[in-house]
Backbone:
């Protein structure tokens, strides 16, 4: 260490290493994630590794949030986060390798849920315990929003299914005639928050279990006197579904099938 010199009487210490990152703004997102203790909740309810070595479940979730926020499109993009020394210093740990991240995602799959799959027709397996844990993280996140932001008590739920084309050999053909998967979502329109979602095979019809999905979305909301409004295309044009929503005193706007009678 050099002796203090000059008018300012400043000493210069050696041996320091300087690193930088183009993603310094991500620190604000991670600060919020940890301030809300979502990392701790995730570590309690999500799959853990068989050994104590490596990252905790909360850190895995944090890494995937970063991957999405910074424009990652696949698990292999995790390599860019992992190799950024500045980002590693901000996080306090090194993001997972792509293969490690992929194996952790695989742990959410429970093959026993596939035992009752029919030989023909569509199939939606029961949710695994790990996916239920992920819902709990989402529930806590939504609860924090409602408690800290004046959202009001009127909720508009947008119900829709998005087809995602794929070339995977095991994928099923959708109603438009190409191989695809489906992302079924119930979105809180005023805040663009996903309250309920389900990843499905392509041959599942869009109207499948809409009533259940909307019920799950409403159940995520804290116990208050909510005014619920629902918007959907003609996939929800079913008398049983409409009677259910009307019986709960929920407003709804649903496209009608253009039948000859109509």
Residues:
């Amino acid at each position: 260490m050099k002796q203090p010199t000059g008018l300012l009487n400043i000493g210069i210490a050696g041996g320091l290493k300087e690193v930088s990152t183009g993603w310094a703004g991500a620190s604000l997102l991670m600060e919020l994630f940890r301030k809300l203790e979502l990392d701790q909740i995730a570590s309690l309810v999500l799959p853990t590794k068989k050994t104590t070595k490596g990252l905790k479940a909360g850190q895995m979730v944090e890494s995937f949030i970063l991957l999405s926020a910074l424009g990652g499109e696949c698990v292999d993009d995790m390599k860019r986060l992992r190799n950024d020394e500045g980002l590693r210093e901000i996080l306090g740990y090194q993001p997972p390798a792509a293969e490690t991240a992929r194996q952790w995602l695989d742990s959410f799959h429970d093959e026993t849920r596939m035992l009752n799959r029919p030989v023909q027709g569509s199939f939606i397996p029961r949710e695994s315990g790990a996916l239920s844990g992920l819902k709990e993280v989402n529930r806590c996140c939504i609860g924090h929003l409602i408690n800290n932001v004046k959202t009001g008590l009127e909720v508009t739920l947008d119900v829709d299914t998005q087809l995602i084309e794929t070339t995977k050999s095991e994928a099923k053909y959708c109603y438009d005639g190409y191989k695809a998967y489906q992302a079924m979502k119930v979105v809180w329109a005023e805040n663009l928050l996903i309250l309920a979602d389900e990843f499905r095979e392509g041959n599942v019809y869009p109207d499948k279990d809409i009533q259940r999905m909307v019920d799950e979305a409403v159940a995520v909301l804290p116990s208050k006197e909510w005014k619920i409004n629902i918007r959907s295309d003609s996939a929800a044009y079913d008398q049983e579904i409409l009677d259910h929503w009307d019986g709960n005193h929920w407003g709804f706007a649903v496209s009608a099938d253009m039948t000859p009678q109509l």
